[in-house]
């Protein structure tokens, strides 16, 4: 499974640029390729592609209107108790660095933990923002095999 950009990605759109910067920095990624670029890399490595698809589309096909977008729990929204991933919710994530900072200040945590939480939150904001605008998928599947000869 790979993070890949989708047709909704517009490298000239300032909002997309900022969301991608946040995603790359906060998630420690060098680049997020397009589907076509990723398929080309797999082929260039000598693999034959058997199948490839976006697992997120599969969820939409199965659940239709009841499908909860993968990025929704990472974006600000009114919590729905049926779909609440509380530790990932922005209201909780935004408080984490302050709480962790207090714990670090009294010596219960290493001093760099609050900064790490802030960087990871930045990655979550960028990643989920890219999902919200239809620019990225977190679960693109490529099934491939290396030919024997």
Quick take:
By secondary structure, this protein is of the alpha+beta class. It is built from 5 helices and 3 strands.
Task: Identify the notable features of this structure and list them briefly.
5 helices; Sterol methyltransferase C-terminal domain-containing protein; Erg6_SMT_methyltransf; 149 residues; Sterol_MeTrfase_C; alpha+beta; 3-stranded antiparallel β-sheet; 3 strands; methyltransferase activity; single chain; globular
What does this structure look like?
- The chain is of the alpha+beta class and 149 residues long.
- It has one domain.
- The chain contains 5 helices and 3 strands; from the N terminus they run E-H-H-E-H-H-H-E.
- It has helices at 14-26, 35-44, 55-63, 90-105, 113-132, and strands spanning 2-5, 48-54, 136-145.
- A 3-stranded antiparallel sheet has the order 1-3-2.
- It is globular, with a radius of gyration of 18 Å.
- The mean pLDDT is 89.
Indicate the topology.
Layout lengths: L1 E4 L8 H13 L8 H10 L3 E7 H9 L26 H16 L7 H20 L3 E10 L4
Antiparallel strand pairs: 1-3, 2-3
Residues in β-strands, percent = 5-15%
Beta strand count? 3
* End-to-end separation: 26 Å
The chain-level mean pLDDT equals 89
Please give the order of strands in the largest beta sheet.
1-3-2
Q: Give a quick account of the main beta sheet: strands, pairing sense, barrel closure.
A: 3 strands, antiparallel
- Please, how many domains? 1
Given helix and strand content, the structural type is: alpha+beta
Poorly predicted regions:
none
Rg, rounded, reads 18 Å
Q: What oligomeric state do these chains adopt?
A: single chain
Count up the helices.
Answer: 5
Helix amount, in percent?
40-55%
> What form results from the Cα inertia axes?
globular
Order of helices and strands: EHHEHHHE
